[in-house]
Amino acid sequence: MTELYVLLGFVTENFATWKEIYDGNADYRTQAGLKEIFLFQDINNKNSVTVLFEIDDIDKTKEYFDSPFIREKMKLGKVLGEVQFTYLKKSR
User: Fold this and answer.
1) The whole model's pTM is what?
2) How far apart are CA 34 and CA 31, in angstroms?
3) How many domains does the structure of the chain reveal?
4) Which residues of the chain carry a pLDDT beneath 50?
5) Please, which residues have CB within 8 angstroms of residue 13's CB and are 6 or more apart in sequence?
6) Of 18, 28, 29, 52, which residue is most buried, by most CB within 10 angstroms?
7) DSSP one-letter string for the chain
8) pLDDT for res 86
9) CATH code for the domain in which residue 83 is found
10) Are 53 and 36 in contact (CB under 8 A)?
């Protein structure tokens, strides 16, 4: 089994607002094959967020993040600028 991950980095206007919306979408992420591994806040900027997910399928994950539903949730969560996506495979 290939262990695939996606690392997201972004800044939000208000972490608490974003986190409330994020937490409300846990079932949707699970259905899309994303499993949260770590959720980080930058020590110097609490609104700078990094999230690591284990994923089932890169194409399905890209489709999830490109969906109108998630785009709207990012707007509601006041995500500023572009989200940085890094797709990773576990190395042995």
Assistant:
1) 0.92
2) 8
3) 1
4) none
5) 47, 78, 80
6) 18
7) ---EEEEEEEEES-HHHHHHHHHTTHHHHHHTTEEEEEEEE-SS-TTEEEEEEEES-HHHHHHHHTSHHHHHHHHHTTEEEEEEEEEEE---
8) 97
9) 3.30.70.100
10) yes
What pLDDT score does 92 carry?
77
Residue 62 CB: number of other CB atoms within 10 A? 14
Q: What's the confidence (pLDDT) of residue 32? A: 93
Q: Is the dihedral of CA 24, 41, 89, 73 positive or negative?
A: positive
Residue with tokens 């110097």: 44
Is residue 28 within 8 A of residue 63, CB to CB? The reply is no
pLDDT at 2: 62
Q: How far apart are CA 45 and CA 27, in angstroms?
A: 28
A 10 A CB-CB count for 54 gives 15
